[in-house]
Amino acid sequence: MNDEHETRLLRAVRAELDRSAADLDELTLARLRAARRHALAARPRRHWLLAGGLAAGALAAGLAAFLLLAPPAAPPVPGLEQIDLLSAADLDLYKDLEFYHWLADDRDAG
Amino acid sequence: MPVAGDRIEFRSVVKWPVLVREDDLESRQALERFLAGSERRALRMAELATGSREEALDIVQEAMLALARRYAGHDPAEWGPLFHRILQHRIRDWYRRSRVRYRWLAWLATDNDSDEDPLATLPDPQAPRPEDRLGQERAGAAIESALRRLPWRQQQAFLLRVWEGLDVRATAAAMGCSEGSVKTHYSRAVHALRALLGDHWP
User: Fold this and answer.
1) Which of A90, B61, B142, B193 could in theory staple to A35 by disulfide, Cβ–Cβ 3.0 to 4.6 A?
2) Which residue of A has its CA nearest to B54?
C-alpha cells in the first residue's frame, strides 16, 4: 500500500470515528453532561481564595488600626519600693510640718 | 476588591451570598467548553480500549473530575495534553485491573523484546471474534472492529496521533512512554489496520 492508499485509509478511519462520536445516543450524552457538571462543581473556586484574602486583609488592617489608634499607655505604675519611699518622705513632711510653719512665720516676722 | 462586572450569587445550602468574580466565571466557561468539546472523543477512545460503554463513561468522568480538581487553574492551552494524560492513566489502570482477570496471558510477560510494555501486546479481551467479523459488511463496522482488535497501546497511539492530532512528543507525554515507543506503536497500528482493512481500502 502506497502513501496515497494509506492516506485514504486514515481519512476513512478518522471519518468513521467522527461519525461514531457525533451519533452517540441521547442517554450517553446526558450522562456525559452530568459528568461534566459534576467535574465543574468540583473545581476549586477562586472566590474562596478571595474570601480568605479579604479575611486576612481585614485582620491585618484591624491590627494596624489597633496599634495606631489605641490610647497611649498609662505611665508605669511605681514599684512597691518607690511607694514605700514616697510614703516615708510624706511622713517626714508631716512630722516637720510644725517646723515649716514656724519657719514661715519667723521669716514674715523678720 | 469587587470590580465592575462582579455579581452576587446565592450558592451553598445556607444561601450565603458569595462574590463571584467575572474572571472566575470566564474560567469556568472555558473549562466547560473544553470538556464539552473533548468528552465525546474521550468516550469513544475509552470505549474502544475497554469495549464497554459503562467502563468508558466511568473513565471519562474520572478524567474530567481529576482535570477540574487539579488543573482548572492552569493555562487552558495545557488542558488538552493534561486531559489526555489523565485519560490514558485511567485506561491503563483499567487494563491493569483487567489483567488480573486474564492471568492466563501472563506468559506474555516473559517476552523481553526491547522496551516494549508487555501490556502493549495484550489483545483486546472485548474484541469481536473472527467469526463475528464475517457479518460485518459495512465499512464503519469494519473500522470499529479493526480498531478494537489492536493491542491497546497501538490503538491509543494511533487514536491520539490520527484522531486527536497530537504530535509524537505530545502523544508520548500523554501515554507516559518514549517517543520511540510511540513511533513503534503507531507504525504497528497502521500496519495492522492495513492488513485488517485491506479489503475495504485496497
Assistant:
1) B61
2) A28
Amino acid at the residue B150: L
A58: nearest CA in chain B? B1
pTM for this predicted structure: 0.63
Does the distance separating the beta carbons of A16 and B144 come in below 8 Å?
yes
pLDDT of the residue at A70? 72
pLDDT range class, residue B5, cuts 50, 70, 90 = low
Give the model's pLDDT for residue B135: 47
B64–A9: do the CB atoms touch at under 8 Å? Answer: no
Average pLDDT, chain A: 74
Determine whether the interchain pair B72/A43 forms a contact, defined as Cβ–Cβ distance below 8 Å. Answer: yes
DSSP B81: H
Helix (H) or strand (E) run with residue B20 in it: strand B16-20
CA dihedral B19, B23, B28, B34 (to 10 degrees): 180
DSSP 8-state symbol, B103: G
B19 touching A, CB under 8 A? yes
pLDDT, position B136 = 44
